[in-house]
Every structure is written in C-alpha cells, then in structure tokens.
Amino acid sequence: MAQAASWKPNGYPKLAKLMGRSSEAAIFRRFNEINMLNLLNLQAEIAALRKEFWLQCNADAIRGPPYENLSLSFETQRSVNSVNDPKYEHQYHILLRLRAKMKEYNELLLQVSQLSKLNAPLKEDLSFFRTWIQDPKGGADFLAKNNNVESFLYEPEFTKDLLTLSQFSSPGPENDPFVRLLRKRVVYLYHLCIGQRLENRSRIVDEESQTVQYDESAINKGANIIATVLSSTLPLIAIVILNRFQRTETRINIAVGITAAFALILALFTNARRVEVFAATATFAAVEVVFIGSVAKS
C-alpha cells in the first residue's frame, strides 16, 4: 500500500492525469482519413447488398409461388424460409444483412458528424501541450522515446487532424482572437507577479513540472471586461485625437484613417460578421462626423 502511495506516474498515466485535470490538455487525433475510409468501405458493402437484394426480388418475381409474392408482404417474406430450399437465400435474409450493415453505417456516420463539430485546439493550448510533452519534468519526451508509430501522433504535420475536449476553444463571439490574446497576456502577467507566490494546491495540475491552471470562466470574464472597456473608450479616444487639430479638412482625413483602422481591427481580431463590422464602423464614423460638424459650426 505504501509503495502504491509513493508511486509517481509517468508516460501515458501521467499524461492522462494532466488531461483529466486540465481539459485544455485533452488533445486527441481525429484519424479523419480512417473514418472516411471506413465510411467508404461500408458504403460499398451496402451498395453491393442493395444490388443483391434487387436481383433477388427480380428472380423471385419470375420463380413462381410462393416466391412471386414476397415483394408484396413482409409477413410472407418472414414465413417463407430456407427449409423449402436449403441453398436458397430469400429476400428477408438479405434484408436482415442490409439492415445490420445500414445500422453500422448510420452510427459511424453520426459519430463522424459529431466529431467534425469538435473544435481544433487553440494554438496556445497546443503549444503548451507539446512543450509539456518534451519537458524533462513533464512528459520527459516519452512519445519520442517509444521510437514507433506513437512517436508521431502529435507531430506538426498532423496539426489539422487534432481535436480538443476543451469547452473554451470554441471560436464564439466571446472567445475571439482579441479576447484570447488578452487572456493569454493577463494570465501570464498575473502568474508572474502574483499567482506563483500564492500557494493553492487545487490549481496545480502537474506537481513535478509545477503546471498550474486558473479558472477559465474567471479569465474569460476578466478578458471580456477589458475588451469591453477598451472598445467603449475608442470613440472618445478618436474625439481626443480629432480635437488636437483645428482644420476641418485635416480632421476629416484623420477620421477616415481612424475609421479604416477601426474596421481593420474588427475584421482581424474579432469573429464579427461582415454586416456586424459594417454596422459598428458606421456607428463609429457617425460619432466622428457629429463631432467634426459640431466643432465646425462653433
């Protein structure tokens, strides 16, 4: 019992422990090409069974009673069995095989469809994962040491085939590139200045490498607050800049530049749709126009 308590996991058990404590590290391969191959294989088998079924229906139609009526009644299909002719496989048997194959095909198709909805890992999460794998105090590069097919599961060439179970990787409106950038920098600065000095064992996801995790919901909330404050002050900042110039023509030119920069920032750093970018830019430009017009009159 004492030996079990003192045992420190390594390799896959240690990686599983990290994934269990931090969903951002729960990164897996999709094996998308294998799923497609299996779907294509099942599709071909179903097509062959379908052809076999229709050929059997045609053969039964010209065979005479009772086989000529099999296509008219499922009850008749079930009642006629191979006792009459041991070498004969009638429609119902083929239909049962087709049903089983269709069930397998539909289940796999739905599973692949659900897999396709899972998000790819964020760049920062994937970077942390690969760093931890190679860290002597983390994964100690155990995958590469296997020197087999497992060594290449997370290589950069397979990045597009990776998925994550983290709920915070969704590219929704509250998780745009700007918020993710703020979240990454703010958390780094917080950990550097405050977090690493606070002892909280519940945050540690890997004791040996001292990897810690902060509450993602709190991080998102803080990042969203900062983003909201910054976006709310942008019109005022634009007015302050315009107020430093006296000529109306100069103000108009500067307003054009600021508006273009505002639209570019929205397009690059948010997940806003084109119509939303247009609406926000039009509102922003309206504030500038009102200011320029009111100052010109005065």
UniProtKB/TrEMBL annotation:
Pfam annotation, one family: DUF6594
Protein name: DUF6594 domain-containing protein
Species assigned in the record: Trematosphaeria pertusa
Residues covered by the DUF6594 domain: 12-289
PANTHER family for this protein: DUF6594 DOMAIN-CONTAINING PROTEIN (PTHR34502:SF5), DUF6594 DOMAIN-CONTAINING PROTEIN-RELATED (PTHR34502)
Membrane-spanning ranges: 222-242, 254-272, 278-296
Cross-referenced InterPro entries: DUF6594 (IPR046529)
Phylogenetic classification of the source organism: Eukaryota, Fungi, Dikarya, Ascomycota, Pezizomycotina
Keyword presence, Membrane: yes
UniProt keywords, alphabetically: Membrane, Transmembrane, Transmembrane helix
